[in-house]
Amino acid sequence: MWVLKAAIVSGLLLPPTLANRLYFPPVYHNGSVEVENFSVPGNLDGFKMKTPANTTSFDFWYFDAFSRNTSAAINIVFFNTGDFAANPHPLTVQISGTFDNGTQFFGEALASEGAFITNDESGITGNWLGSGTSFYGTNLEKPNVEYVVKLNSPSIGVRGTFKLKSRAPPHYPCNPNVDGLNTLLLPHLHWSNAVPDAQANIDLTINGTEFKVTDGVGYHDKNWGDASVITSPKYWDWGHASLGPYSLVWYDLLDYNNTEHVYAYISKNGNLMHNNCAEKAVEVRQWGANATYPPTSGIATNEGLTARFDLGGGQAFVANLTKEVIIHDQIVYARALGSVTGGIEGQEQYQGRGAYEEYLYGLLYGKS
Question: From CA 195, how far away is CA 145, in angstroms rounded?
Answer without folding.
Answer: 8
